[in-house]
Design a protein that fits this description.
alpha/beta, two-stranded antiparallel ribbon, 15 helices, 48% helix, 301 residues, 5-stranded parallel beta sheet
Length: 301
């Protein structure tokens, strides 16, 4: 652990956080490095908002690697509830235990009830796992896809890092997990949840930064191919697309062209692999109407 981020008291400041994250291959700016440091020192969640593919989810993975801690992920969706996110009772095992107790002649109802709602029959879902695992990184992914009721349910956990289970009482984390919440802003998340977090907006990176990310993630790809694909992705974002490509799509595009044996972004091959970077028919049609060779020439790559 000497070369990893240790407990909050062992972290000198944002620059150490930045250096350790960059060791994992995740490049951060000063604002995000500061937010991560404060999250570790103050035990505050980080609320990451921005378009899909700009590195929000990857931040949680990088933090887990830097901290040498397990990443526990909760993927949000419409209708998610406490039984899916926090805990549930293992009813089949409870039923087997009940039948075994009856076969053994146990008739004490109070004792049976106590045994049925014992910790061994509790199935820990991601939120409870994160509270019980020290250290850990909890990723609450795409919170904007969950319902308002689920947001309200999260408030106790993010405020006190504790949950109340009626049959067992209140369970509290000895060491709070590092919490990363992400939102693609498909809807506005309530202020009550945001107020409990440190906020960071993830914008699309500039050319130099995006190229550095691509080179870091795909070191085997030729430098020219990485530069050209990054330039093309930047050009596509300037178009009126339904879904502008994120950095993740830029990496996928470069990886696809490299898999086809390309050492540079031949325009015809780039068009043939547009499915790696664009996910809507209208966007693909618009991209096909661009003179990709002219785009590369204009950018000097």
């Amino acid at each position: 652990m000497a070369d990893r981020l240790g407990p909050a008291g062992d972290i000198d400041g944002p620059q150490q956080v930045r250096a350790r994250l960059e060791e994992t291959g995740y490049l951060v700016d000063d604002g995000l490095a500061t937010a991560c440091f404060l999250a570790l020192r103050l035990h505050r969640p980080i609320f990451c908002e921005g378009d899909a593919g700009v590195g929000k989810t990857a931040l949680a993975s990088a933090l887990a690697e830097a901290l040498d801690a397990p990443l526990i992920r909760l993927q949000c969706h419409e209708g998610i509830d406490a039984s899916q996110a926090l805990y549930d009772w293992d009813f089949p095992r409870q039923l087997l235990h009940l039948r075994a107790a009856e076969a053994a002649g146990l008739r004490d109802a109070d004792r049976l009830e106590d045994e049925l709602y014992d910790r061994r029959f509790l199935v820990a879902r991601p939120l409870l796992k994160a509270l019980e695992t020290q250290p850990s990184v909890l990723l609450v992914d795409e919170i904007d896809r969950a319902d308002d009721e689920f947001e309200a349910f999260l408030l106790e956990l993010l405020s006190e890092f504790s949950v109340t289970i009626p049959e067992l009482g209140t369970l509290r984390a000895e060491t709070p997990p590092v919490v990363v919440l992400t939102s693609n802003r498909t809807r506005e998340v309530h202020d009550a949840l945001k107020r409990r977090c440190l906020y960071h907006w993830f914008d699309h990176p500039g050319f130099a930064r995006e190229l550095a990310i691509v080179r870091r993630r795909l070191p085997a790809v030729s430098a020219r191919l990485a530069e050209q694909v990054t330039a093309l992705a930047q050009a596509l974002r300037s178009q009126d697309l339904l879904k502008p490509p994120g950095v993740a799509e830029t990496i996928d595009w470069a990886r696809a062209l490299d898999a086809l044996g390309a050492s540079e972004a031949d325009p015809d091959l780039a068009v043939a692999t547009l499915g790696s970077v664009l996910k809507y028919r209208e966007d693909v049609e618009r991209a096909r109407g661009l003179d990709l060779a002219a785009v590369l020439a204009a950018r000097g790559v």
